[in-house]
User: What shape does this take?
Amino acid sequence: MSRIKILKKNNYSTNEISVCCLRYEDIMPIRDWRNSQIKFLRQTKNITKIEQENYYKNVVTKEHSKVNPDQILFSILKKSVCIGYGGLVHIDWDNKNSEISFLLKPELYGNKDSYSKYFCEFLNLIEKISKEIGLHKIYTFGFDIEEFRFSPLKKKNFLLEVKLKKHVLIEKKLKDILVYSKIL
Assistant: This one.
């Protein structure tokens, strides 16, 4: 298993989930999940298998050896089976902050209880990892499409920092962008 140089451990766990360095075996299911949930992402077209393979090989794995990576991506596992992925992206080492990325496989995403449970567990781990690597603030960037997506953030004491009104066109409707953040 690949290792992320900046982290003290290969994996981090709660009672429900664990995270480890994004595994090669998970990249194609993740591609499918991203393509099926494109309206929630800053992704404008479907990702091809070749694009996913190249991204993993030329971007993700190269970040592993950096002292200050631009992103740290994890496979989210339940009993060693990938149920999602996420991590820290757009890491700003000078200002000690990072955006959080999180995506579950569609059958879990669509269930509000599962989504809330796994996102809260992931936030526990990502907060621990963020503190370990010296970040002082983490934040999310999300389209205001489904309110339940933001409930775990509120539950974990993230605050709504920015609301960009009618900022992005999704399914022919202008939607708000919400940025929730937490000082660690």
